[in-house]
Amino acid sequence: MNFQSNDLSEQDFETIVTETKLLVLKTIGETLIDRFDESTEDVVQEVYFRVFKALKKNQFKGEAKLSTWVYTIAKNESNRMNSKRIREEEKAKKYLNSEFYTELIEAQTEKIETSSFISTMLDRVPLAYRKALSLYLEGMSMDEIAKEMSVKQGTVKSRLFRAKIWIRENLLGEVPPHGA
Hints:
Blueprint (H helix, E strand, L loop, with lengths): L9 H22 L8 H17 L9 H32 L1 H26 L2 H11 L4 H8 L3 H18 L10
C-alpha cells in the first residue's frame, strides 16, 4: 500500500490498525517491562497516533514493509514508556526517602493518634455537653453552635464551661502530657 497524505482515508487507517494490531500488542508485550503492563493501552494509543501523524506527513517512505515500520514505532514507544516509568519510580524513591516525607508521615501519624485519643475521650463526656463540645472542636463559632443546636448562645457557653470542668475533674489524669 502506498499512502500519500492527501489520500489517507479513515478506512485506510482502520485497515492498517486491523492488520497490525496483533503485531503491535505482541511487540509491546515483549518490550514493555512487566511491572509497567498497565501502560500497555497508553503505548498502543501513542503508537497509532504516531503512525497516523507520520502517514499524514508522508514520513513513511516505503523502504520497508508497513508492518516493519509499525513494529519499529511500537518498539520505540515501549522503550520510551519504560524510560519514563523508570524515571518516575526514581523520583518517587527519592521523595519517599527524603527527610520531608518522613517528617510528613510522622506528623500525620501523630495527628491520627491525637484525633483517635480525642474521639475516645469525647465519647466519655456526658451527653448533655458532648454535642456543644464536638461542634466547638470542629471550629464552629458560639453563634453557629447555638443555631445548630437550637439553643441560646448563653446555653452553649454554659455547656462548654461545664464540659471543661467535667474533663478536668474526670479525665485530667488520663491526658498524657504534651509531646509524650
